[in-house]
Specification:
Order of helices and strands: HHHHHHHHHHH
Bound molecules: the ligand Cc1ncc(C[n+]2csc(CCO)c2C)c(N)n1
Structural class: mainly alpha
Shape: globular
CATH superfamily: Heme oxygenase-like
CATH architecture: Up-down Bundle
Number of helices: 11
Number of domains: 1
Helix content: over 70%
Oligomer: single chain
CATH topology: Heme Oxygenase, Chain A
Largest sheet: none
Radius of gyration: 17 Å
Number of strands: 0
Distance between the termini: 47 Å
Length: 213
């Protein structure tokens, strides 16, 4: 039997996939030992990600080829606009990151790169291209979060960043997105592979950037 389309994409994205899910940031967050300054830098940059991510999800809602998929994607967009946003605000408060810093700190290169990639994928108006970037952003995050053993760190900033990406609803979302990409991706395999690979490279660079001053 041939492998699932999304498994083949992941395979082709090595070594960046494994370097991401086994990144220093992942090892540290599992142990609850990410330095507060690193966590602050990471979250300030990641908060900027949410805006383009929602735009990309909107593009997937618009380009989906079934009513069922449109409903699920739209529900997921609602979740992101709600829960994750309060997490960021509570985390910034706990880390002492004020509004000025959140606004003034310049985008790092991987943040800019991700924003352009998400906008580029949205602009294709192609459902599988939007899915390719969404699948990486979700599946890769589930894969690292799954590797964090119990017990969770006592610090809620680190613990909730893990549980946000490893919980039953999130697993369902990843399973759904992967199934959609398995179903629709092969028709546009070349473009989809290119988006997938570039997204994985940026995920790795995004983790690296949290450790750069
Ligand atoms: C660099 C980076 N890549 C992927 C994610 C994961 N992610 C982005 S939006 C979203 C949906 C709601 O949780 C998820 C899981 C991230 N946060 N930061």
């Amino acid at each position: 039997m041939s492998p699932r389309f999304t498994d083949a994409l992941r395979e082709a994205s090595e070594p960046d996939w494994t370097a991401s899910v086994e990144h220093r940031f992942v090892r540290e967050i599992a142990a609850g030992s990410v330095a507060p300054a690193v966590m602050a830098t990471y979250l300030v940059q990641d908060h900027r990600f949410v805006d383009s991510f929602l735009a990309l999800l909107g593009a997937a809602v618009a380009s989906a080829d079934t009513f069922e998929a449109r409903l699920r994607l739209a529900r997921f967009a609602g979740t992101i606009a709600g829960e994750e946003n309060t997490y960021f605000l509570r985390a910034f408060e706990a880390l002492g990151v004020d509004v000025e810093r959140r606004i003034d700190e310049p985008d790092k290169a991987p943040t800019t790169g991700f924003q352009s990639l998400m906008r580029e994928a949205a602009a294709t108006r192609s459902y599988p291209s939007a899915l390719a970037v969404l699948v990486v952003a979700e599946w890769l995050y589930l894969e690292w979060a799954r590797r964090c053993p119990e017990p969770l760190p006592p610090d809620f900033v680190q613990a909730e960043w893990i549980t946000l990406h490893d919980n039953p609803d999130f697993r369902d979302v990843v399973a759904f997105l992967r199934a959609e990409l398995d179903r629709t991706g092969p028709a546009e395999a070349e473009r989809v592979s290119d988006f997938f690979r570039r997204a994985v490279r940026l995920e790795r660079a995004f983790f690296d950037a949290a450790y750069e001053a």
